[in-house]
Amino acid sequence: MLQVNAIDSFYGQSQVLFNMSLTVKEGEVVTLMGRNGMGKTTTIRSIMGLVPARQGSIQFKSKDITSLSPYRIARLGIGLVPEGRLISPNLSVEENLVATANAGPNGNERWNLKSIWELFPKLSERKNSMGNKISGGEQQMLAIARALMTNPDLLLLDEATEGLAPLIRQEIWRCLRNLKEEGQSILVIDKNIQALTDIADRHYIIEKGTVVWEGTSRNLLEDDTAKQQYLGI
Ligand SMILES: Nc1ncnc2c1ncn2[C@@H]1O[C@H](COP(=O)(O)OP(=O)(O)OP(=O)(O)O)[C@@H](O)[C@H]1O
Description:
By secondary structure, this protein is an alpha/beta fold. It has a single domain, classed as 3-Layer(aba) Sandwich (Rossmann fold), CATH 3.40.50. Helices cover about 35% and strands about 25% of the residues. The chain has helices at about 40-45, 70-75, 95-100, 115-120, 120-125, 135-150, 165-180, 195-200, 215-220, 225-230; strands at about 1-10, 15-25, 30-35, 55-60, 65, 80, 155-160, 185-190, 200-205, 210-215. A 6-stranded mixed beta sheet has the order 6-7-8-3-9-10, sandwiched between helices. It has a 4-stranded antiparallel beta sheet with strand order 2-1-4-5, covered by helices on one side. The radius of gyration is 17 Å and the shape is globular. The structure holds adenosine-5'-triphosphate. Adenosine-5'-triphosphate binds near residues 11, 34, 39, 40 and 41. GO terms for molecular function: ATP binding; ATP hydrolysis activity; branched-chain amino acid transmembrane transporter activity. Belongs to the ABC transporter superfamily. Keywords: Amino-acid transport, ATP-binding, Nucleotide-binding, Transport. InterPro entries: AAA+_ATPase (IPR003593), ABC_transporter-like_ATP-bd (IPR003439), ABC_transporter-like_CS (IPR017871), BCAA_Transport_ATP-bd_LivF (IPR052156), P-loop_NTPase (IPR027417).
């Protein structure tokens, strides 16, 4: 579904990604791990066209998206849950959702208000609250719900559970597990190995803008050296 082939990405003169490659197959949940500042968010921003790759290429559903605009990439079926959530503060929960609602690229309409309220019952109780009046956990659910409302073929999540209380994290992971069970392809940045090895199929660890380790959940759980060397745990 997604192939990132040896991309180099920069902020101005400063190179952040070096020969970075990864793949997500249809129906897979894949994580991107690594210490702070190693280039995880930049990888996601390059996939979305927000920091276009200067070398290498990115294919999505066999189409070259390397130099497309973020808008066109989103319309092809990639839904982003950005770091920091970026909820519209002056719109209600429901209005935030309706603002992004769209049939998917193949006319897929799996996600609408009704199915979103079923996935996140807590959010439905807050549907009339303004975006800036809900808790951090509710904002994170809303950010995921908003991306789902575009009916994406691939969902990208950047730090989906950072700063959230343990119970709310469980709720987010339950949601990811449900999505995986229905075959949603997901690429997720998250630091919580224990939960993620449970949900995800494969993992990439990046260091200084390039992949230094890749493998299955079982490989990662068994590789104490990799965990210590690259993740500091
Ligand atoms: N807008 C920017 N302009 C210049 N440099 C940036 C910018 N955004 C990030 N960087 C730098 O690029 C490098 C990679 O950052 P990135 O946010 O991709 O890392 P990350 O692995 O997602 O880290 P974190 O877990 O802290 O979000 C860092 O050295 C960072 O300082």
